[in-house]
């Protein structure tokens, strides 16, 4: 069996926003066949490490809605393949 690293997802501009949620999406390289994606989000712009627990796991598509957000708070997010 041959295994390869998955390509890095490219984040798209945030889509629909409500007072407590944000629609996020990403694009992956054509040769990437990920089983699922994980999302990290935070109010600080410090990127997660490999040991950081994701906020949302097991996403099988290339978009998701991040809920339970606070109004007028800036959030940052990252996607892991």
Per DSSP E runs of 2 or more residues, the count of β-strands stands at 6
H-E string? EEEEEE
Mean pLDDT: 91
Radius of gyration over all CA atoms, rounded: 13 Å
How much of the polypeptide forms β-strand, as a percent range? 25-35%
The largest beta-sheet arranges its strands as 1-2-5
Number of helical regions: 0
Kindly report how far apart the N and C termini lie. 20 Å
**Helical proportion, percent range:** under 10%
Poorly predicted parts: none
Largest β-sheet summary: 3 strands, antiparallel
Overall SS class? mainly beta
Outline: globular
Mind explaining what this structure looks like?
The chain contains no helices and six strands. It has 81 residues and is mainly β. The strands form two sheets. The chain has a three-stranded antiparallel sheet with strand order 1-2-5, with no helix packed on it. It is globular. The protein starts with 9 loop residues before the first strand and ends with a strand.
Keywords:
single chain, about 80 residues, globular, mainly beta, 3-stranded antiparallel beta sheet
In brief:
This protein has strands at residues 10-11, 22-27, 37-42, 56-59, 63-66, 76-80.
Helices and strands in order:
Elements: E1 10-11, E2 22-27, E3 37-42, E4 56-59, E5 63-66, E6 76-80
């Amino acid at each position: 069996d041959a295994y390869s690293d998955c390509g890095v997802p490219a984040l798209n501009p945030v889509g629909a926003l409500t007072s407590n949620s944000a629609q996020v999406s990403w694009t992956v390289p054509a040769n990437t066949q990920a089983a699922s994606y994980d999302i990290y989000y935070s109010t600080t712009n410090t990127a997660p490490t490999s040991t950081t627990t994701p906020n949302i796991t097991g996403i099988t598509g290339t978009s998701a809605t991040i809920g339970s957000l606070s109004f007028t708070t800036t959030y940052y997010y990252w996607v892991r393949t």
